[in-house]
Amino acid sequence: MAKRILYAIPALALLLTAVYFHGLYARLVIAAVAVLCMHEMMGAVSTVGRPMKALGYAYSILLFPVYYFLGGLAGIAILTALGIMAVFTMLVLSGRDAMDGLITVMPMLYPGLFFAFMLAIFCIENAPISRFLAVIAFGAAIITDSFAYFSGRLFGKHKLIPKVSPNKTVEGAIGGLVFGTCAVVVLGATLQGYAGIAMNPFWYVLLGLILSVMTQIGDLAASLVKRRLGIKDYGYIMGEHGGAMDRLDSVLFISPAVFAFYFVLVA
User: Fold this and answer.
1) What is the DSSP letter of 195?
2) What three-state secondary structure class fits 157?
3) Under DSSP, is residue 247 helix (H, G, I), strand (E, B) or coil?
4) Residues 113-163 pLDDT 10s
5) What does the alpha-carbon distance between residue 213 and residue 181 come to, in Å, rounded to a whole number?
6) pLDDT grade, residue 7 (50/70/90)?
7) pLDDT at residue 122 in the model
8) Long-range contacts of 4-8 (CB under 8 A, 24+ apart)
9) b/e per residue, 187-196, with b = 16+ CB within 10 A?
């Protein structure tokens, strides 16, 4: 446990500085981590084929400049379509196996496209709202994951979905849901004044439930992919925590929902 905490400290420090300093610094941090996660996912899918890594790296490198300078999410949609077109064009011209194309497209969509929504959160020009949403997203994911783990260790008796993740339990999932929802309610009600928002706490209860459930689905989805690829972790940069993808799978999964919350109820 002590080693896990030590490995987590640099990542937590990077997150806190990104939220605090915000602006270009935070966006460049997210952009750099997106490339790192693309590298990890490309390595992971290489266990089942030969992905076109150059196209995947190009996609992840272009995410930030395309989002910032070429129309936000509309620009990302165009980039994604062009990226997929490039993949299948290479398949036709090179005669490679179709599976190589599919395992190239997958990292473009996950984690690639999901990072676009995290960038969208940090690119909101109203810095207090941007920070507020970032805290909600990371807070929901961290608290849900942490209390699901501890609740499972303390009270877990009934397996949740053993074929996907044998260590996760129903009791752990409930603990993560309860504490994750409470965290979103507390963070939302406490910090919304800083962000210039005045919203009925009911919406934070609903948001907390959605984010906590999706956090756990995101974690299970990442476990399912790893099991299918026959790997334990996506990477090793964080020691016992695995790679960046292993730590960000949950918050990536809920980033679209957090941005949708902003777009529908706040913007």
Assistant:
1) T
2) coil
3) helix
4) 999 999 999 999 999 999 999 999 999 999 999 999 999 999 988 999 988
5) 9
6) low
7) 96
8) 4/239, 4/240, 4/241, 7/238, 7/239, 7/240, 7/241, 8/238, 8/241, 8/247
9) bbeebbeebe
pLDDT score recorded for residue 187: 97
In whole angstroms, give the CA distance from residue 24 to residue 267. Answer: 21
pLDDT of residue 147: 95
> What is the rounded CA–CA span in Å between residue 222 and residue 244?
12
Closest alpha carbon to 242 in 100, 44, 30: 44
Residue 135 token pair: 């805290």
Name residue 125's amino acid.
E
Tokens read off for 13: 């420090």
What is the rounded CA–CA span in Å between residue 254 and residue 262? Answer: 13
Task: Look at residue 1 and tell me whether its pLDDT is greater than 60.
Answer: no
Q: Which two tokens stand for residue 142?
A: 């961290």
